[in-house]
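Most newcomers find our protein records easier to grasp once they have seen one. A record pairs a protein's sequence with a compact description of its fold. An example says more than a description, so a record of this kind follows:
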Amino acid sequence: MQSFLTALADPVRRAALRIVWDGGEHCVCELMERLDATQSRMSRHMKTLKLAGIITDRRDAQWVKYRRHPDLAPELAAVIDAVLAAEALAERDAA
C-alpha cells in the first residue's frame, strides 16, 4: 500500500496517470511531449507507477509504451479515479 500511495503523491505521476488512464496505450515519447519532461525523468516516474502495480509497459522498438494495469484491483482503481477527479475539480476551481 505504501508504494501505491507514494506513486500517487507526485504531481507529474498523476499527470501521466491522467493520460494513460483512458485505457489506451501511450508511448513514453507522447508523455514526454505532453508533460514537458525529459526521457530519463519520465522513465523514472513511470517506473515508480509500474513498481506500484498501477501501470504496465511493453517495448515497441526503441520506445516503451505504457497502459493502465489490467489486473489492478477495482478498489485501487477507484482510489485513482477519485484522486484524478478531485485534482481535476481543484484545477477547475482554481481557474
User: Anything to note?
Assistant: The chain has a mean pLDDT of 95. Strands lie at 26-27, 55-60, 63-68.
